[in-house]
Amino acid sequence: MARRAQPSSPQPAVNNCAAPNMKSSEKLLRPRHTPAGRIAPDGARSFVPNLAKVSRSSPVRLAAPVSKSERTIAREAPGIRLTFDRATMHSKKVTPMKPWNQITHYAGFDWARDHHLLVILDQQGQIVADFQFEHSVEGWKSFRDKTAAFSNLAVAIETSQGAAVDQLLQYGYTVYPVNPAAAASYRQRKAPSGTKTDHLDGWSLADALRVDGHGWKALQPLDELSCELRLLCRDEVALIEQRTLLVNQLQQALVEYYPAALEAFEDWVNPSTWEFVLQFPTPEALVKAGKRRWEKFLHTHRLWRSETVEKRLAIFSQADQFKASAPITKAKSQLALSLCKLLRALQQQLDQYRQQIEALFTRHPDHDLFGSLPGAKTVLAPRLLAAIGTDPSRYTTFQVLQCFAGTAPVSFESGQIHKAKVRWACDKFLRHTVHLWADCFRRASAWGQTYYRKKRQDGMSHACAIRCLGQRLLKIVFRMISDKKPYDAELHARNQQKHGSWVLALVEKTAAQTGE
Question: Does domain 79-220 fall into CATH 3.40.50.720?
């Protein structure tokens, strides 16, 4: 039985459409399966009403067949939906993308790891070129030679990052990224039977670009400084995830043979814990070392705390009373030593990444803009800059930015049915960064903490409350990058008072109760 929408819903459904001229009172829903598809991760499409109807064409082959080899699925293909929105490094000289009214030919680029396939259509939908080339120096040279006759060429490709996109942007082609879900819908429109071939993929992308491309937005290359900062921040997060994986493996190894070490220390991301295992690899070695070496280790690594030192020394003295058998101890201690050495080396690389990121962030012209955000500090401020960027035209409206970050829910309305669910199709790196920042922001801002507590009192989980707070913060960030002005807490407080914000009323009430 269909449910009616609850009037006391903690978060109303928001607009999920990237419409630049949308009224704030409207609720335009983006269907799950439409010809326009979803928003491409690195190139938001603008909304264009009353799309011009273009007659659908049939795939016309060339007069002379082009020899092609059977392709295998690239290793990247099965996970393309889950890839992060990773920008690629481009040259300093940014070639402006050609406007849509100058495009005369439309190419569908079906990419793979070692070779690619291209189908080019004219304005009538006839295939004028269809060829495959290797991902090599010779292959890309032949690509440029064969496309030289089409000076006003636009390329649709089922990704927004990677080596193929990098090459296309370096050579000045106008690139339109297509979301994999949208690409699958375009292919199904051409072949409802479920047929899938490389030629069909390329042809469906090319024809989709020809028919619907006037409502899409071309991929704009970043400047060199922003691009390098984005890549470093994303790679740093990937290395942190790798460190977490190694720490989990280390803890599991210690569970099997060295429970005293796990009992003595809680934070195994701290490098001092890895040094403890390296100095005392087994319970026997720990007990044999004696109290003086234990105390020296705690002082050297700044772990001496009056409230924990007695407990730790007691655990060290009894470490060999509960241990594994000799074979397990020998095998797992070797694994633990190997993991600690890997973690030590990985941490050195993470420290270097952090130094480079902070140096680039300091040099960036928008350093003061993102550095003014409460709670961001030196770690999250560069990530926010790298993930969001400083060009508001990429998002058109703050609602689009919220959709990119995954804070805006996905709405479904049909008759008396009103539903909203979490948005999973978004930029994962941006969503992760905004989540961390919102959690830090509530600790650094009175109104942020009040807003969070109110959402928790309404029955929301911690993650949902943080997501709602991130939704509000992204609206502020969009205004900041639009006006090029840093965050001003007093200005925000005046705006809250002007609009009669319930958050400000709760903040004042809480301050009066606590006497602050």
Answer: no
